[in-house]
Amino acid sequence: MSILITPTEPETDHVDANRNHASRGFWFGVWRGAGAVLLAVLILISAAVTVVPLIIGAVPLTVLTGSMQPTIRPGDVVVSTPVQAAQLSVGDVVTFQPISDDPTLITHRIRSMSAGDSGVRLITRGDANGADDPEISADQVRGRVLYTVPYVGWVTNLVGGNVRGPLITLAGLGLVGYAVFTLVRRPRGATERNTP
Question: Which residue ranges does the record assign to the Peptidase S26 domain (predicted)?
């Protein structure tokens, strides 16, 4: 009786395939997680700049100058809500019209207040400015700043005018599509792993 011995090669191909699959799975998970975090951040920023102001009756405004630095920087978005003169106090950051009925708006801090026959009068100044602004009446105040969203104003300024509406709609649809895709899509190899 003779015994036939044949050399066998180690199953390194199978081990390498598993190692490559595990490596791809790791990076897929990292990218998927990063995408989910980015999506969540974009949704929160969008809500802070558009949805919340709409719900509470506030107005988001982009800061264009550095007069309120370091508190508020150019490119930040301030969310300002209407306020009555009786609710104002020294130290509040307010958005006002420097000239009555002029659409120009300025956001500065109240430095002093006085009441007289003509109503409440305010002196404001930008935190970075060396001099006070001309006195204004409380009627010129359009709102008190509730919160600031840093850097978002740069994006809104770059994407201005007629492009903004369609671009926001397209971005929103893209984000929703991506969310649905990542939630519905099965990872590669899911069917192979479940079969014996």
Answer: 40-100
